[in-house]
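> Could you send the AP-1 complex subunit gamma prediction when you get a chance?

Sure thing. Input:
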Amino acid sequence: MLIVCWSPVMVEVWNGPGDKKTVEGPSRMPAPIRLRELIRTIRTARTQAEEREMIQKECAAIRSSFREEDNTYRCRNVAKLLYMHMLGYPAHFGQLECLKLIASQKFTDKRIGYLGAMLLLDERQDVHLLMTNCIKNDLNHSTQYVQGLALCTLGCMGSSEMCRDLAGEVEKLLKTSNSYLRKKAALCAVHVIRKVPELMEMFLPATKNLLSEKNHGVLHTSVVLLTEMCERSPDMLAHFRKLVPQLVRILKNLIMSGYSPEHDVSGISDPFLQVRILRLLRILGKGDDDSSEAMNDILAQVATNTETSKNVGNAILYETVLTIMDIKSESGLRVLAINILGRFLLNNDKNIRYVALTSLLKTVQTDHNAVQRHRSTIVDCLKDLDVSIKRRAMELSFALVNGNNIRGMMKELLYFLDSCDPEFKADCASGVFLAAEKYAPSKRWHIDTIMRVLTTAGSYVRDDSVPNLIQLITNSVEMHAYTVQRLYKALLDDISQQPLVQVASWCIGEYGDLLVSGQCEEEEPIQVTEDEVLDVLEGLLVSNLSTPVTRGYALTAIMKLSTRFTSVNRIKKVVSIYGSSIDVELQQRAVEYNALFKKYDHMRPALLERMPIMEKTASNGPTEIVQTNGEAEPSVVEAKHPPPVTQPTNQANDLLDLLGGNDVVPVIQTTVPTKPASAGGELLDLLGDLSLSGGPAPAPATSVPSSQPAFLLDGLTSPPLFNDIAAAGIPPMTAYNKNGLKIDFTFERANPNPNIAVITIHASNSTEADMTDFVFQAAVPKTFQLQLLSPSSNVVPTLNQGTVTQVIRVLNPQKQQLRMRIKLTYTHKGSAVQDLAEVNNFPPQSWQ
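Output:
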């Protein structure tokens, strides 16, 4: 017999005696699945789409449960939501449910609620402020575990407002005798100090007894708290220096104590606490003799007694080394620290070798001799397969180079340059150039080394390597025959390395007569005819491997050989052919050289004679070459100016975009290497930047459209720029003074045209570091015309030891008030700096 009885809540089904079942009725939803079942279900998903479908279905069920205010399963649903959040799915709709769980009286609900708050809430959302009162109540709860939950949450995501409101409760718990709460309160205090530094003094009284605690957890968090306070306040640092003996005693007890199963990690007693204490000692001992003296002995004990067979011991030793290097330690202790790093280099662990190389690189300047003892081990690291280790080893190897080991170190580094990956070649080649220039034992060795680099990695060298090597060769008078012979042989073997080809072309053009005459004494001379040399240079002109710059070097070399070889007719033919080249630069050179053969043939030998010795005038930054007799030719002028000084025209026009562009005209930037061809064929049109009178070369001028005012062409057809300028009695002015960089303007008038104001800028640097890659740009309204000449240097020396000067010529035909916008870019202490300014306070005499 079957009897069915309905109830508002459940259905009872009775089939007879002893057989009664209760089934949930329509008024109650089915129980949601447990978290473990959800995890198992999600892991069975074979595709990402299948997993998303499962997550969306479960999220819908959780939302429905939240809407119905189901308190029974809220904790389970939030736990599942947190798991989905960890998988990367949105879970923001559970934020308010977390607050409801926190307000619950059940510990299980509070635990999930606080966990959810730490994961789903942060100070950017106003919702988190709603839990401030709950946290305050729980901080005063009678159960320590509830207090611990509140401390963890506040220390994890408390905003500055919450920290201000609850700092008093945290400070109170920091003084409690319960070690479980003290360690959590200490970490919470660290977070409070980071958010609200002015509350630091509130915790100062509570820190007095923290280091006397026996519990290692409290000790650890106390050291973290002291470290944070010392890093943020110099006053706190001075206050806590008196704790150095106590910290030394704690560290000594850790080292000397026997086996403790609670704190032992791989045979070392509480390495985490040891590392924290060492970091705090490093901060306290830095720059203080007394504190450093107090910790010297314990640092020596840690360095000698710590086991190095396990990674735990290596971590402690590494922190010890850093502490020794930062404080004012004894010389013997520093040698011990460097020897520890040397042992690290022999470790099989790549991470340990990397940190050892990085640490040695930081200390090589102060303890050079101690690091030199591990030179062979460091060089061996160049063969490591790990690219990070290789790079650090390369940087450290260059730092170890000096006059005593230059030959051996360069041999190893050149071998590394031959076999290293392309990503290393540029930095390695630059390092070799700098080291060779600084420590070269002889000029022949220097030239051989640079040529070896150009032969093996010529495509990766910096742009200034070509002019620097040309300057080196020019100054080594006794090596000219040897150098030109070596470079000629290199050209026969390989013409793919463009910097090498450019230097070789220049040398053959300068010293081709020495090559043909066979005057080399340093090695067996080779027999070369004039036609063979010209064949090689003509081959460069037609080679697909040659860049336009290389072809310019080759054509100029052929032109120079017209005064050194007898095959003048062949050279004339080659030059005339390229007068119709599609390469504008090559065509311009050929047309100008052709004019020398025709109209100015009587001056050709004087113009194409050998370059004089070139001197370096800048001790900092890029090298600038000064020509002593004022004569040059275009290929050498290219080598004269470092790339940062000569700005591309589009960079000058970029200033318009930054300055608004509608009412300003761009600066016309002068560039020395390229000269416009002139229909008139005048000599100054051909070589406008050369002075035939033996004086200094006039400032170069630029090609401008015919619609531009005539003064822009003055530099081509008139005497040197500064011969036609008269002092106008105009007071100087400061146009810019910021971040240690000062720009002063001085004014003069040009005699032929009173509408032209000549402004000289003087850039000075009052900081303790050079300002490199300095570029000054300017723009003026359209009613003016502006010409910006090349600067004297691109390095502004430190501490006002010199100035960078640059000339601006401004045409103001309407006598309007002068306005100018300037853009300054430079590199200072490794950081790129860019700034804009507007100058409107010019003296009236400068524009009236």
